[in-house]
Specification:
The chain has 156 residues and is of the alpha/beta class. It has 5 helices and 4 strands; from the N terminus they run βαβααβαβα. It has one domain: Rossmann fold (3-Layer(aba) Sandwich), CATH 3.40.50. This is Low molecular weight phosphotyrosine protein phosphatase.
Amino acid sequence: VVEKSLKSLVFIGNICRSPIAEAVFRKLVSDEKLEHKWRTDSAAVSDWNVGRFPDSRALSCLRNHGIETTHNARQITKEDFQTFDHILCMDESNLRDLNRKSNQVKDCKAKIELLGTYDPQKQLIIEDPYYGNEKDFETVYEQCLRCCKAFLEKYH
């Protein structure tokens, strides 16, 4: 069995969107009993929030949907580009940063793209909810759910 992986890399702090996407994808994989085929993680482009738990509003949103996470923020590594098949991000800024970083990595195998590419509703960008309210986190959750479902269907 060839191991496939999803790397959810998003907002610079890795405490809002990417932990939601990671937890949603893990739940979908678990519900489909595909844990043996996927390795899922999330990381930040910068080191601003390394070691921190996700934003309390992100955790609350996930709990409202019956999803728990034990995620701690970390920064992307060179090895991530070499070992993960997919690196998915939320906006153009992160996409530019990731492409720049990947160009500095020998043997980069990861396909880097926007998670919104998979959105059936064609919402390409998943906006950062950090300066918003609970409704904004719910919007991120709904977008991540749609995109992750479509992504899993394509690569399952």
